[in-house]
Amino acid sequence: MFNKVVIAGVGLIGGSLGLALTRRNLAKEIVGVDPDRDNLNKALALGVVHRADSLAEALPGADLFILAAPIGVTLGILEMAIPYLTPGTIITDVGSVKGRLIERAEQMLPQDSYFVGGHPMAGLEVTGVTGAREDLFDGATYVFTPTANTEISAINSLKDFAHALGSKVLELEPAEHDRAVALISHLPHLLAATLVNTVAADDDCGGLLKLAGGGFRDATRIAASNSNMWRDILLTNREMVLQSVREFRFQLEEMEQAIINFNREDLVSGLIRAREVRESLPENRKYVSRIK
Amino acid sequence: MFNKVVIAGVGLIGGSLGLALTRRNLAKEIVGVDPDRDNLNKALALGVVHRADSLAEALPGADLFILAAPIGVTLGILEMAIPYLTPGTIITDVGSVKGRLIERAEQMLPQDSYFVGGHPMAGLEVTGVTGAREDLFDGATYVFTPTANTEISAINSLKDFAHALGSKVLELEPAEHDRAVALISHLPHLLAATLVNTVAADDDCGGLLKLAGGGFRDATRIAASNSNMWRDILLTNREMVLQSVREFRFQLEEMEQAIINFNREDLVSGLIRAREVRESLPENRKYVSRIK
To answer: Which PROSITE patterns does its entry note (chains A, B) (predicted)?
Structure first.
């Protein structure tokens, strides 16, 4: 499918993309670029990339360039990459927030470059290349966020690529994506962390945790995710996250009022609505969280 | 261990207690009492109880009387049971809220009755006797809430019983229990339902749910629990639940302020605290949620 793929940032996502590209015979050569030499050595040992190189050496002649570094450094890497890009190289990223990144990328890149924002919606509470899994994207939703400037052949190649990973493809406008992930992903992370901190703030936190059952564990599992990564995601998607927090607070006040007023009808109808929507979620895909 | 055990309310918890009592040879005879005849027939078919009877017929000569009906009707059943209680019968309940129930039960019961509040902290998103599992309490925490009026021999028998189910026993004061479960169980349920409702309130709820990954699923799994049961729990533990919501809101505002002010340090330290506390939770017990 591709002759040469360059992956900048060989962590959980970049590493899993490398594994999937190799194992599914989607690329002849996969080159890893990463400032962390130890990490690159691990990636080589795990067969995640075929060789490691600098951007300058790796990029010329690449069909596909995947920006898979942490969201805070993606634009910096793209800027460093520009002098070495070959016309026709398809460029995509894997970041959880799209609007500002795509705007800046389109300003920054030459006219003949093929940039398409991407967000494979898969993750684990673990990070790093040692957690990489070939099937991480199998059954997941892979979002692309083309704009009026996006080259059709580039988005089509990427859609084929995502399908070959086993993903379902969804095209969204960048702002639409950011609003959606704020509600369905970033808000849940913020709430899970806040719930843990509410328990942690109690004088008898240790005693409380002894009573934690499956409900608390499930509700807070994502609070164990990488803190720096989530700080950057929440700040990068700041406006949409804050808006979703306001919407959540409004809903919480409704439930709270029902409890304060002993309003059995309002309370149960809120609980029923939630149950019905939750039960409407389609069957889980095969990905299983690795954390306790 | 017991000659005759009477279980009033043969649902998920009552049914699982019945199964565990039979399969672990903890009782010679288990009698089910339930206003729902269909449910009793299912319980008999599943071997959860040996026979079904009325309170009047079942209670005389019982060693143990377990109130396992929904929390809203527990006191009513206890009141109906009083004329048929034999002195020396140990009485316990399985309700998620203890303070008011125990106060009322102690006022209501004759001096020679042996009442001990109990709360086996195990559950599933499914309800009803068909979900009953012999191992539901294995590895779970079984809380008892004795008071100054509790007979020592009764609490000791119940502790032996809980250990025989495979549970870890914890003794708490009723108010202490209610405060703890508000934070570790009732608040998480309320937040999970509220999170789902925040997404449900969006014009594009269907589109958002397509993007739901493992994080949203985990965080909202308990929103699929029985709505009437949770309405009753939240209202019965009203003061403690409202206090825990206030504490949560305070923590949420701290996180929100960090995002508004672009305060990277405060935000990441909140996320790190949550991650560390979440990671400190001991290994999960073998109970596995049955819901997708």
So the answer is: PDH_ADH
Contact A170 B212 (CB under 8 A): no
CATH class of the domain comprising B177-279 = mainly alpha
Q: Does domain B2-172 have CATH number 3.40.1190.20?
A: no
Average pLDDT estimate for A110-127: 85
| pLDDT tens sequence across B184-217 | 999 999 999 999 999 999 999 999 998 998 899 9
Q: Give the A window 233-292 contacts with B, CB below 8 Å.
A: 234-235, 238, 241-242, 244-245, 247-249, 251-252, 254-256, 259-260, 262, 264, 267-268, 270-275, 277-281, 283-284, 287, 289, 292
Q: Do B210 and A278 touch (CB under 8 A)?
A: no
Q: How far apart are CA A196 and CA A54, in angstroms?
A: 41
Q: Is the pLDDT of residue B227 over 50?
A: yes
The mean of the pLDDT values for chain A is 93
The three-state secondary structure class of B74 is helix
Stretch A29-37: mean pLDDT, rounded?
96
What are the CA-CA distances from residue A194 to residues A100, A156, A184, B253, B261 (Å)?
27, 40, 16, 9, 17
Domain ranges of chain A: 2-172, 177-279
Q: Does B167 touch chain A (CB under 8 A)?
A: no
Q: What is the DSSP letter of B182?
A: I
Distance from CA of A88 to the nearest CA of B (A): 30
The DSSP string of B19-74 is HHHHHTT-EEEEEEE-S-HHHHHHHHHTTS-SEE--HHHHSTT-SEEEE-S-GGGH
